[in-house]
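Ligand-bound model needed. FE2/S2 (inorganic) cluster.
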Amino acid sequence: MPKLEFLDAGKKIEVGKYANIRKVALLNDVELYKGLHKYAFLPPPAGNCLGNGICGTCTVKVVEGMENLTPKTVRERFHLKNRPEDVRLACQCQVLGDVCVLTNHALNYDDLYGKPQQKAAPATA
Ligand code: FES
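Prediction:
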């Protein structure tokens, strides 16, 4: 059986194949959401979307075992287009083998919302 480790929460959990990272985190009291995003009843953008891949607030950083996750979904590719390759939406990926993730990785604006687009410098004559 695959093992899913939440590094910053200090939990290593044996899960079934195709287990959803978000569900495993919530069932095992791993803090997945930051701030108001933990509340599902708040209207967007404050709350979360209950795992439907719409809000983009359930990001995890994959430390080990990226190859043991299902491929990125269309919703992940949309929400994570400006973020590092090792960031995934917990609600959209399923575990196929041993995986280690960080849930509390978004410590700066760029990690959380992506890098702002650079404007082209005006041409000088
Ligand atoms: S819970 Fe909303 S995108 Fe994962």
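Residues 45 and 88 are 19 Å apart (CA to CA).
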